[in-house]
Write a structure and sequence with these properties.
The protein folds into two domains: about 425 residues, MFS general substrate transporter like domains (Growth Hormone, Chain: A); about 55 residues. It is about 80% helix and about 0% strand.
């Protein structure tokens, strides 16, 4: 009895662990929610004095996510080497500085600069949230804490939508950026007070690997985003795709030869790590593909206000909130492959159902959002725990960086792919008078300005484009999810 009592953590230890969990969840929701919140501002930005084109709108949304995705692994390595708490605090301050630059923007290049700076801050924040949490939580309680963090991280997009809607309800896109600045500073204060410094681990920052990873990702997204405007067979687009393949191959070769690689490609020989990383990418591909379209779809297609569009995503949160306490036990009972299979079926089915519910009563739309939420509730905590357990605790920052990179790269690809498909289909379904123009209008705001009397037909063209994009996202999610489940099943069979 005495030994049991000695081994039990004190109430003070548990209280501190809980406070750390709350603090890192708040930081995570902030930087992940910012990815979703900007989508609500797309209609306001499209009609603003910035006058962005369709590809510029995608870059405004994706610039933050691209930097976030590409630098999140180096961000984890920085935390491992120089201190996770300090890296997290620095990231929050840089994030706030980038939001300030964006709020003061008077032209698209300055807006993009602010988004890039914010993405750099977010890349320091997210992986070091995992590192701080891992080292602040006892080993026997760590898996549950990570599962809760993984589930709560899934709420980032929903919180970003609702909080962003409240800020943007003023009618000015600048309020979104001004609004996140005090939140970031408050989070920094909480981290400074609540958390303690953890042991450092020497990690090479591998600048060559970092530059190659960034260049590969940017080249890939240039091809996807610029395809509709320049043509898929244009030299710029084809060159971008070829460059992405070449740079990706060079990155692998460099990482295999470097003594201390940023991310050792050999790690992916482990089926568990590979399946968890790919699964995280697929989950967020579907999630943020939807978030990019949802706000515009509800505003243009249903006539919702920006506030109503933001709160309309709340049904998605119901399964995630309910499931955060029960999913770990359920997964332990039914097994990881079954849980992931059910999760990806729900995500794919939810996206497909939403594509056919765009013109149906909102209750039907809400039901499909709940189905999608069930998929996230099953997949996210399972993948988080699997990916983190695939690396030792001394590489907690890299583990956090890897899952964050998969998450944000999936988000960037989801936004780019569904945005590209939407624009291509939208342009083909515009009224004949607008089809005769050269160049074709590629945003609702641009088309409406050219032909105000055709507003209804223009909105219908956008709904058609968005529905097609959601169907494509559902198909891609289903196929990629099947691969993830096959890898997870293979891993379990060989254990």
């Amino acid at each position: 009895m005495i030994e049991t009592q000695v081994n039990q953590p004190s109430a003070a230890v548990r209280r501190r662990e809980t406070l750390v969990l709350v603090a890192v969840c708040a930081c995570t929701i902030l930087v992940v929610g910012f990815v979703a919140a900007i989508n609500l501002a797309v209609p306001l930005l499209a009609s603003s004095d910035l006058h962005p084109g369709s590809s510029e709108l995608l870059w405004i949304v994706d610039a933050y996510v691209i930097v976030f995705a590409c630098l999140v692994i180096p961000g984890g390595a920085v935390g491992d080497r120089f201190g996770r708490k300090g890296a997290l605090l620095t990231g929050l301050l840089v994030f706030a500085a980038g939001a300030t630059i964006s709020a003061l923007s008077t032209a698209v290049p300055l807006m993009l600069a602010g988004r890039i700076v914010s993405g750099l801050g977010a890349a320091l924040v997210l992986p070091n949230c995992v590192g701080v949490l891992v080292h602040a939580t006892g080993e026997d309680r760590r898996r549950r804490a990570l599962a809760i963090w993984g589930a709560i991280s899934g709420m980032g997009g929903i919180v970003g939508n609702t909080a962003g809607a409240a800020l943007l309800n003023t009618g000015a896109w600048q309020t979104l950026f001004w609004g996140v600045v005090p939140v970031a500073l408050l989070c920094a204060t909480g981290i400074a007070v609540i958390t303690t410094s953890s042991p450092r681990t020497y990690r090479s920052l591998d600048p060559a690997g970092t530059v190659l990873l960034v260049a590969t990702s940017v080249a890939l997204l240039i091809g996807i985003i610029e395809g509709p405007d320049r043509g898929w067979a244009s030299p710029v687009v084809l060159g971008a795709f070829v460059l992405a393949v070449v740079l990706g191959a060079v990155w692998v070769l460099v990482e295999l030869r470097v003594r201390h690689p940023l991310l050792n490609p050999r790690l992916f020989r482990a089926p568990m790590l590979t399946s968890a990383s790919l699964g995280m990418l697929v989950t967020w591909f579907g999630s943020f593909g939807l978030f990019y379209l949802n706000a515009s779809l509800l505003q243009y297609g249903r006539g919702f206000s920006v506030l109503a569009a933001g709160f309309a995503t709340l049904p998605l949160a119901i399964p995630i909130l309910i499931g955060s306490r029960f999913i770990p036990a359920l997964v332990a009972r039914i097994g990881i492959p079954v849980a992931l299979g059910a999760g990806f079926l729900c995500i794919s089915g939810g996206l497909l159902g939403l594509s056919f519910a765009t013109r149906q009563p909102f209750i039907v739309y809400a039901i499909w959002l709940v189905v999608l939420g069930i998929g996230f509730a099953l997949a996210l905590p399972t993948l988080t725990a699997e990916l983190t357990s695939g690396l030792p605790p001394e590489q907690a920052g890299v583990a956090g960086g890897l899952q964050s990179a998969a998450r944000e790269l999936g988000s960037a690809l989801g936004i780019a792919v569904v945005g590209t498909i939407t624009v291509a289909v939208f342009s083909r379904h515009l009224p004949s008078a607008l089809q005769a123009l050269d160049p074709l209008p590629r945003t609702v705001a641009e088309a409406t300005a050219l032909d105000p009397g055709a507003r209804g037909q223009i909105a219908d063209a956008f709904v058609t484009g968005a529905s097609t994009a959601l169907q494509a996202g559902a198909g891609l999610t289903l196929v990629a999810g099947a691969i993830v489940v096959a890898l997870a099943t293979r891993h379990r069979a060989h254990r």
